[in-house]
Amino acid sequence: MTTRAGLACRNDQRAGRYSAKIPTPYCNEGVREPCCLSPFQKGGRGDSVSHEDGVERHDLLFKEAHVTKTKTYRIVVLPGDGIGPEIVEAALDVLETVQAVAGGFSLACEFHRAGAGCYRDTGEAITPEALEAFRNADATLKGPVGLPDVRKPDGTEAGLLGGILRVGFDLYANVRPIRLYPNAATPLAGCEPDGIDYVIVRENTEGLYLSRGLGLVTPHAATDSLLLTAHGCERIARFAFQTALKKQRGAPEDGRKRVTLVDKSNVLRSFAFFRRIFLKVAEEFPEVATECIYVDAAAAALVSHPQHFQVIVTENLFGDILSDLGGATIGGLGMCPSANIGERRAYFEPIHGSAPDIAGRRLANPVSQIMSAAMMLKYLGESKAAAMLEGALWRVYAQRRIPFKAGGAVEGGASIVAKAVKLALRKGNKVQAA
Ligand code: NAD
Ligand code: IPM
Ligand code: MN
User: Fold this and answer.
1) Max intra-chain CA distance, the chain
2) How far is CA 320 from the centre of its chain?
3) What's 173-212+224-341's CATH class?
4) What is the pTM assigned to this prediction?
5) Residue 320 Cβ < 6 Å to ligand 2
6) Which protein residue has the closest C-alpha to ligand 2 atom 8?
């Protein structure tokens, strides 16, 4: 087991490659001491956590032995640019506490550089060592990357990782939950907590983005082209229906499980093609309501009627734009986590960017990164720990523990939020134990 000194090197991005393990206090590796068991594990009481915690009950349906082995997961951490290191540090801080209160697993974190700063210093957006580590990791926690002034000669930004990680590793599903927390600063009138609760499933490997780096430019014209494949449409449609089935809550409006395809098939053949495939896949899921709407109307509906949606599936660029729009309805981009998922690998990151306008000013909301960490725990199979973390976040919001400024920034920044969430985790654990 490594020590806290090991953790201290977390911030030292410039040290290049180094690793630290988040220790599980009170536990040795291997067989856990009974004293480490959380009350969840002792009596299978996890499913007694109520909806007031903001936790979906199905996440808590787990069965664990009285004494279990501590699993160690290999996690690659890419702190990124701008506010990345601040919010990643907060998420790791919180993960350390989750690990302590949930028990049963530990995270061996390996830190690597990637992003625009890395590109500026090395000429590469990500180092070969980082790529190799990513390939071999159980999961990767990534901060936002990119700096608007670090650009390639073609005028696009250097140091972004979508082409390398999403396309390179075929992480075809970009899962972006949009959920309204209590007291979050929604600009929409009359919205209750959970009155907005849908997931955008963004196709992550093709669409207009497949043209990245390949567009044609002459002095008089420029073109990028959109490509959709039958395989790509079919698998993302199926992923969306499976997401609808797995998600316990239906659409807030009527409790229905509903998958909405957002396209532009009134104009473009590629989207008519996507729609045909989507409707064919829908036949496999008769228990899920199916609908198709155009992207312009969808943008309006996400503001005027967000309670209608449960799962939205869409093309890459549309998903990019609509998820930021959704973020604005739930209190800002700092509320928005995401997962990039393929058959064998996955990484987890906020949907937002490196926010250079607030970097280093103690204003960043790390909730997006903390929720991304919760999604990572769920992906790893640590559903109980993920649920504890989501519950703690929900309580922190319900009890107005975070000093939000207008627009979603936090007075005092990421460490203030981490502190509040850690406290809620420890208190929550005591309540459960009582
Ligand atoms: P941005 O998402 O970084 O910021 C947009 C606005 O939201 C800014 O006002 C910012 O201060 C605010 N904001 C974002 N996250 C916040 C948080 N956690 N807490 C409080 N406020 C927050 O978008 P941008 O300015 O267009 O892009 C900046 C850089 O990030 C660019 O280089 C862009 O390419 C890159 N980018 C990277 C990713 C990624 O790594 N996944 C995603 C989007 C943008
Ligand atoms: C996102 C980002 C990226 C995207 C950029 C940084 C390439 O905006 O993850 O939403 O457009 O996919
Ligand atoms: Mn985006």
Assistant:
1) 72
2) 13
3) alpha beta
4) 0.88
5) yes
6) 320
